[in-house]
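Tokens as discussed.
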């Protein structure tokens, strides 16, 4: 009977140790999950701060670009005017070149006709 009680005590002690180990594993997992959730919360907070910082930088850049555009706009409009004027002058030069070329061709035809007439060819 003593042996039976010893076995029961040993079995009970083993079950008690197993239950303790099982609870320890569960508590360890809960602690790991809590740490992961804390890291996730921290990551989300940092991401929100980064987004806010980027948003502020984008706003500052937009303001800088608008200010620079206002400062440069007169020079750009002057450049466009000069470019348009240059294109017009180029077109006039081409037209003048074509006119002079046509005049030279006409003059050479007329001169050759006059020379042929004088030489009676």
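Sequence:
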């Amino acid at each position: 009977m003593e042996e039976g009680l010893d076995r029961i005590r040993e079995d009970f002690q083993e079950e008690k140790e197993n239950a303790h180990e099982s609870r320890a594993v569960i508590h360890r997992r809960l602690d790991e999950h809590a740490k992961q959730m804390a890291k996730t919360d921290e990551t989300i907070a940092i991401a929100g701060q980064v987004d806010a910082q980027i948003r502020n930088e984008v706003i500052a850049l937009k303001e800088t670009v608008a200010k620079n555009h206002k400062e440069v706009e007169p020079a750009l409009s002057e450049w466009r005017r000069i470019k348009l004027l240059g294109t017009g002058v180029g077109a006039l030069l081409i037209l003048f070149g074509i006119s002079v070329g046509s005049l030279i061709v006409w003059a050479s035809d007329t001169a050759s006709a006059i020379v042929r007439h004088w030489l009676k060819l």
